[in-house]
Design goal:
The complex is a heterodimer of chains A (105) and B (335). Chain A has 105 residues and is an alpha+beta fold. Chain A has helices at residues 17-26, 70-83, and strands spanning 3-13, 33-37, 39-40, 45-46, 60-67, 90-99. Chain B has one domain (39-332): Na+/H+ antiporter like fold. Classes of the chains: A alpha+beta (105), B mainly alpha (335). Chains A and B meet through loops of A and helix 3, helix 10, helix 13 and helix 14 of B.
């Protein structure tokens, strides 16, 4: 029932989210999941959106892209690293996972 | 001497006003590490109601106003926005240990306008029975947008010049669009349009106006809490940002007060209008400006400009500048 696949996880600022989505789609990602992210980074604490923050857009998002072709994941990661992480903070990693219905990815 | 005495008595009275007590209360709640928090959707709703009310009231008044009266104050407002950024850029360029981009970004935020300071000034002026033309708050974007655009253009020109000598083109339209799409300015413009084109008086009087003061107190509480939480970030950057944030709002407001006074002499711009213009100039954007700056100058350090604006600039604009300019008006415009 389960098939091997790769999950690319990207955690970055809301500001750069549109660009990240474009790169994922341009490099063959068929879809992705976005959830609010918060926690402690290298410099300071990044709050989640539960508490009112006066300033708009400084929240962080976590993207998850599942791909059956690992090379596509690597290509997406390479472009995000080059085009987004020069000016915006971010964390990125790949995970080996098992998925059902692999044709969706 | 009279100004100092008047200011001190005014200031002591304002410290007890709901606007300032809630701001200080929020700051203390933050300092004590209390778990009390206002959820984001409530905060967003509060900003929406406040700006809709200000916009609608302005729109209703513009319907019957002489548009020619608005012209000179609007021009002055644009000039002030540009002037504040140029002064800020000039000052930061000469200070040691300042990253140029951080200086431009901070100057841009201080040239831009704070919706919360504007709302606080309106309530405090109503308490003092200081009348102003209801279209004055509509001058907000005339200062906000030129300041943000200019700061982003200057930062980009500086960056390109230091790289290869050729300036790269900044997408000004995208910055204007980004500013107008911010929640505070969107609500203000929507309110203005509804007030201008519709007949919103019944809902304005029965819903938005009675809610205004109460909701402003919640906004002040959130601002106080935010000011405390950003102080740590400000400590990480050069102390010049804190000094600029302390002096800048007062200086910017005084420049606006002077230019507003000239408009008073030339076209009869009301004393209340002069005060509100000075408060708009002394305020620094705390809701919609930072994301525009982050998008336009992503290589600037947000801790510098947000720390300066939210933890020092906004409290100074609300707690010092509003009472200062109300007191100044009482002396400059005796009844």
């Amino acid at each position: 029932m389960f098939h091997p696949a790769t999950k690319l996880v990207v955690i970055t600022e809301h500001f750069v989210s549109k660009k990240v989505c474009k790169i994922i789609e341009a490099e063959g990602g068929k879809g992705y999941t976005m959830v609010p992210a918060g926690g402690k980074g290298l410099h300071h604490w990044h709050p989640t959106l539960e508490k009112a923050t006066v300033i708009e857009g400084f929240d962080n998002l976590k993207f998850e892209v599942i791909l059956v072709d690992r090379k596509k994941g690597e290509a997406i990661a390479e472009r995000i690293l080059k085009e987004c992480f020069g000016e915006y903070p971010g964390v990125m990693y790949l995970e080996d996972i098992q998925v059902c219905r692999p044709e969706r990815f | 001497m009279e100004l100092i005495f008047d200011f001190l008595s005014q200031f002591a009275r304002q410290l007890q006003s709901p606007t300032l007590t809630f701001l200080i209360g929020g700051f203390l709640i933050g300092a004590t590490g209390s778990k009390l928090s206002i959820p984001s959707p409530i905060y967003q709703f509060v900003v929406f109601v406040l700006l809709m009310k200000i916009g609608m009231k302005g729109g209703v008044e513009i319907r019957s106003a002489n548009l020619a009266d608005m012209f000179l104050p609007a021009v002055i407002t644009v000039v002030i926005g540009i002037l504040i950024v140029l002064i800020g850029a000039f000052v930061f360029r000469r200070l040691p240990g300042i990253n140029a981009a951080d200086g431009y970004a901070t100057a841009g935020l201080f040239g831009a306008v704070s919706a919360s300071t504007l709302a606080a000034a309106i309530v405090m002026m109503e308490q003092e029975s200081l009348q102003f033309e209801a279209w004055v708050p509509a001058l907000y974007p005339f200062m906000d947008i030129p300041a943000l655009v200019l700061a982003i253009v200057l930062a980009n020109v500086h960056r390109e010049k230091s790289k290869n000598g050729a300036a790269h083109k900044v997408d000004t339209l995208a910055i204007v669009k980004e500013s107008l799409q911010g929640s505070a300015l969107s609500a203000l413009i929507l309110g203005l349009m509804i007030g201008l084109l519709g007949r919103p008086e019944p809902v304005l009087q029965s819903f938005y106006e009675p809610l205004f003061r109460g909701l402003l107190s919640i906004l002040m509480l959130v601002l106080g809490m935010e000011a405390w939480s950003r102080i740590r970030e400000l400590k990480e950057v050069a102390h010049w940002f804190a000094i600029y944030a302390l002096i800048g709002p007062i200086l910017h407001g005084l420049i606006a007060f002077g230019l507003g006074y000239l408009a008073h002499l030339a076209t009869g711009f009301s004393p209340g209008g002069v005060v509100l213009l000075a408060v708009i100039a002394s305020s620094n954007s705390d809701i919609s400006g930072p994301p525009t700056i982050r998008g336009g100058i992503p290589w600037a350090n947000p801790s510098a400009y947000i720390g300066a604006s939210t933890s020092v600039g906004t409290p100074v604009a609300i707690a010092v500048c509003i009472p200062l300019f109300i007191s100044l008006a009482n002396i400059v415009f005796p009844n």
